[in-house]
Design the sequence.
């Protein structure tokens, strides 16, 4: 099966319409030491700023950990994941 460029562009535009959140992605930048105090200050480097989609997913995970002490006591474990979707290109 071959996907046409026009179909891919339409699908990408539809996906980007769902990206209604705004994200700023940073990473640690250059670290500079203050000569008076000797304390380091780490700068921030902007990697991305723009639209994105933040999505959560989760639920009960106790069934996946059979035989653990928590399961023997009847404990319920909640596991939540956080996903961030960015536009491509």
Sequence:
């Amino acid at each position: 099966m071959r996907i046409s460029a026009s179909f891919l562009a339409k699908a990408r535009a539809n996906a980007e319409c769902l990206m209604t959140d705004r994200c700023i992605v940073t990473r640690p930048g250059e670290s500079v030491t203050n000569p008076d105090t000797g304390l380091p200050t780490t700068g921030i480097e902007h990697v991305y700023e723009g639209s994105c989609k933040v999505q959560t997913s989760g639920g009960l995970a106790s069934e996946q950990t059979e035989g653990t002490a928590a399961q023997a006591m009847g404990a319920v474990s909640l596991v939540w994941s956080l996903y961030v979707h960015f536009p491509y290109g």
In short: The first strand starts at residue 21 and ends at 33.
